[in-house]
Amino acid sequence: MRRRLVTALVSASFCALGLARAEPPADTPLPARLTDTGGGTQLITAEAPDARSTTGTLTWWDLRDGRWTAAGTAPARFGAGGLVEGTSRQQGTSTTPAGLYDLPFGFGIEAAPAGTRVAYRPVAESSWWCQDNDSRAYNRWTDPLPADCRASESEHLVSYTTQYARALVIGFNYLHPVRGRGAGIFLHVNGKAATAGCVSVPPEAMAEILRWTDPSRHPHIAIGTESGPTALVRH
User: Fold this and answer.
1) Spatial separation of the C-alpha atoms in residues 230 and 98, rounded to whole Å
2) Alpha-carbon distance 53 to 225, whole Å?
3) Are 140 and 130 in contact (CB under 8 A)?
4) How far, in Å, are 12, 28, 178, 221 from residue 87 at the CA level?
5) DSSP codes joined into one string, 7-32
6) 3-state DSSP call for residue 207?
7) Phi, psi of 130 (to 5 degrees)
8) Residue 104: which of 89, 84, 119, 85 has the closest Cα?
């Protein structure tokens, strides 16, 4: 009985001193503070101040010799509706889905930058991204547009000459699409303002990210906020 009491008192003392669950040092790289980075050695973090924000910072990281090091950073834009947890997102809300996603392939109206290793699809006049919930091609690149996918419910990729000059597909709702959750979420070049749910960066940053991305290193993107329910780092 006495031993259990002493143990409890010691544990309580450690908690009071902040020793029971120490916070990582202030200089710990952001990926090292995440619960999950996807298991690869490349990671992109897209972080907004809070869930209502439409701007933030995008950083791409390399894991080498057990330590994450920033390879580059750029200002980022998010959805006009802010950010929301990806598992509860609804299509048409202009929100960017928070979460951890893979990067299936790149595409663009412009040619891939020299040195690009990720699979890169050139956008043609016949290229579409189907967002029709009633189509078998929901949340898929299609070339040409299938008969069961309405053009009014899809994106004609060649029409977005600025945004889709170059892009990477974000694997949100991609592997096993849930109807009504959302389609066509990309990392692409900045347009005039906030996005419809994608993440965007300046054109020079997009080109650099495409050159940097190495499929053999299993890159992922982590999207979230500095605090709150959609925080990248959960306490």
Assistant:
1) 6
2) 9
3) yes
4) 37, 28, 10, 16
5) HHHHHHHHHHHT-TTPPPPTTS-GGG
6) helix
7) -75, 125
8) 119
Q: What is the mean pLDDT of the chain?
A: 91
User: Average of pLDDT values for 1-30?
Assistant: 48
* Residue 186 to residue 210: CA distance in whole angstroms: 13
Query: Cis omega before residue 144 (within 30°)?
Result: yes
Q: Name which of 150, 210, 153, 215 is nearest 186 in CA terms.
A: 210
Residues 116, 141: Cα–Cα separation, whole Å: 20
What the block records as the tokens of 65 is 């010799």
Q: What is the pTM of this model?
A: 0.89
* Residue indicated by tokens 């967002």: 131
- Spatial separation of the C-alpha atoms in residues 229 and 235, rounded to whole Å: 10
Tokens 């000059």 belong to: 165
pLDDT digits (tens, 9 = 90+) for 44-84: 999 999 999 999 999 999 999 999 999 999 999 999 999 99
Give tens-digit pLDDT for 171-219.
999 999 999 999 999 999 999 999 999 999 999 999 999 999 999 999 9
Computed on alpha carbons and rounded to an integer, the radius of gyration of the chain in Å comes to 21
- Look up residue 144 and give its two tokens: 């040409």
Backbone torsion region of residue 152, taken as left when φ is above 0, otherwise alpha when ψ lies between -120 and 50, otherwise beta: alpha
Contacts of residue 34, defined as CB under 8 A and 6 or more positions apart, other chains included, come to: 222, 232, 233
Beta bridge mates, 169: 186
